[in-house]
């Protein structure tokens, strides 16, 4: 059964939402030549049951004090801190999470909403 989009309360502390957002940030960093971006805050998140879970997330990132040659899995807010004068952005993304598929997380869209 499919449902409507439901807001996720306290999304910034939700591990499943953070995993989705980190997947999008890894994709952003793969396309970005400068200092890697790290999650600052998850602003808003919604989840909808479809053929998997469709997440719609809004989050803020900032250039981090990590090096761009670090393994993507290590560029996380627990290990890297945003640079005080680094570039910051806010993104909105839609991600389909279907754990049984070969590619369990599929980024449907990502857009810069504040640069």
Name the descriptors:
about 120 residues; mainly beta; Nuclear Transport Factor 2, Chain: A; globular; Cystatin_sf; Cystatin domain-containing protein; cysteine-type endopeptidase inhibitor activity; Cystatin_dom; Prot_inh_cystat_CS
Describe the structure.
By secondary structure, this protein is mainly beta. It has one domain: Roll (Nuclear Transport Factor 2, Chain: A), CATH 3.10.450.10. Helices cover 15% and strands 42% of the residues. A 5-stranded antiparallel beta sheet has the order 1-2-3-4-5. Strand 4 and strand 5 (105-114) form a beta hairpin. GO terms for molecular function: cysteine-type endopeptidase inhibitor activity. Belongs to the cystatin family. This is Cystatin domain-containing protein. InterPro entries: Cystatin_dom, Cystatin_sf, Prot_inh_cystat_CS.
Shape: globular
Nearest-integer average pLDDT: 92
Distance from N terminus to C terminus (CA atoms, Å) equals: 38 Å
Provide a count of the helices.
Answer: 1
- The strand line-up of the biggest sheet is 1-2-3-4-5
CATH class: Alpha Beta
Query: Using only CA atoms, what is the Rg?
Result: 14 Å
> SSE order, as H and E?
EHEEEE
Extract low-pLDDT stretches.
none
Task: Could you tell me the CATH topology label.
Answer: Nuclear Transport Factor 2, Chain: A
* Strand composition percent: 35-45%
- Going by helix content, strand content and strand pairing, the class is mainly beta
Annotated CATH architecture: Roll
Helix content, binned percent: 10-25%
Give the tally of β-strands.
5
| Total individual domains | 1
The description of the largest β-sheet is: 5 strands, antiparallel
